[in-house]
Structures are given as C-alpha cells and as structure tokens.
Amino acid sequence: MQGWMFAHIDTWSRKGGEGAVRLNGQRAWTVEEIIAEVERETSACHHVENPTSKDELFIIPGSCKNFDELKLAHEEACQVKIECDYTNPKNTNKSRRMKKLRVDTHTLYTAVISLPINSEDAIDSPLLISECVEAFEHTLLVEKKRLQEAGGELAIAVIHTDEEKIHMHILGLDRQHGSVNRLHPGKAAVDEIRRSNKWKNGCSTDLNRAYKSAMVHWQDNLYEQVFKKFGLLRAGPRRARLSRQEYKQKKEDQEKQAKSIKEAVLAEEEIRKSEKLKTAIEQDRKALNAQRAEQVPGIWTMC
Length: 303
What we know:
Elements: E1 6-13, H1 31-39, E2 58-61, H2 67-78, E3 81-87, E4 94-100, E5 106-118, H3 119-124, H4 126-149, E6 153-160, E7 165-173, H5 185-195, H6 205-225, H7 237-240, H8 244-295
Antiparallel strand pairs: 1-5, 2-6, 3-4, 5-7, 6-7
C-alpha cells in the first residue's frame, strides 16, 4: 500500500448550522443528516453516483449493532442533564441547577479514515480489500481504546466503497455526559485550558496552539500505531516538500520497510508457535512416561 494517511475527526449537534458554513468550508450538518449520509439514505447521498444500498453496507458493530440502535443510543445521550450555575433574578443568590442539553450541544463524534486505494481496485482484488479491512480494524482498536479512556464509546463503523477512495466512518457517543467534546482531542485540550486559572478570557493564541498540538499528536499516534505498519507516509509530497521523484522513492521505501516489519512479525509468530508445540510435545511425553511408570511398577523411564 503506497501513499499517505488521511484521518479527520469532527463533532455535530442536533441543531446544526442552519445553512452556515464553517471555517473549513464545510456546512455544519445536523446529527440526523450525518447519520443519514453514513447510512446511505437516498435523500442524503446525492454526491455519490451509485450509492451502496443500505442492505449491502459493510457495518462493523461497536456498542451499537445497527443504525436503529445508534439512533436510540444518541437519543439517550441527548437526555443527559448537566449541572450549571444559576443566579436568582430576584435576589441575585447563586446556586447550582440541573438543566437539559442545548440543541446546539455537539452530541455525535465522527472520524473519517481514508486509504489511498481506489474503491474499484479494492473490490476487484480480494488480497487488496483484505489489507484495507485489516488497516481499518487496527484503526478501530486504537480509536475504541482512546474513546473509552475519554469516557465515551465507539458506537458503530461503516466502510464505504461507493466513492473514489475506500474509506471508513467511525461514529462515537458519550452517554454519560451527552456532549462529545471530551472525545475530540482538540476540543478537549481547549476546554482544559479554559477551565484553568492561567487562561485569560479573550486570548485565543493559547487555545489555537493547544488545539493544533492535540490534533497533531492524535494523527502522529494513529500513524505510528496503524498506518506506518501498512506502508503509508505521514504526509503528502506538498507538506513534506518533496519533488515527485523523491516522493515516489519515499513511498516505495516505506512500503518495503512495512513489508519487512510484517514479515519479521510473522516469522516471530511462527517461532513462538514452534516453541509452544515443542513444549506441548515434551509435556505429553513426560505425562505418558509417568503414566507408564504407574501402570508397570519397577520399570524406569528416561525423562
């Protein structure tokens, strides 16, 4: 597998942006629209020429087995009540109260993992599609652990092969807190700074630095644990400032290195299997000798 990694994460609310456009140029879709697009609802995937039917989707269950369970789990997360400050307008006394989540609270976490493999090529090659699925499964293991450590859950994942590049959508929830900001590394880092005593209200420099640093760390970690093992590069030629020839050579070298590492791992596994087999045979031989010695007293066996 040659090319560079692509991994993007985002969060969504029930309200959405009501037609507003984000800084990255994307529309602020609603949770309902995002789930419909991933599920391949007819009205939500006009950008796909020949969308996969809902019955043929490659679904990888998490805490939810299907989209019906996902929608119910999301509704449950939206029912969470949070504690907040309250000032009595009559006497200005301050207290703490419980209130429902706002409709603009981000309650759905998504990640898109795309491989530099054409969907048509993957579909036509059992070996290639197997390698792609293996890369996606490794990614899921890393993301599932991270989401759980952040207090959330990996709800469901879907692999799409009806667009140009084969890719996977990961959907996550936080049924304990409702908001999924804790699951987003960048937003979690920003919230942590805002809660600290050192941050001055209105100073965005520290927030931007923390956000970028957390996101770079997330991608670096995903690359080291997953994509590097499959021969991909961390960045493309423009980001790495490489010529076309240099980039081509680097892709080939990285792929060879990944194959060598994989072969070494397989060789180690074979050695461990062989050692386990030898140990089992030796144990069986000793057990058989002991059994024979009990059945025929006076006969000694070599151990």
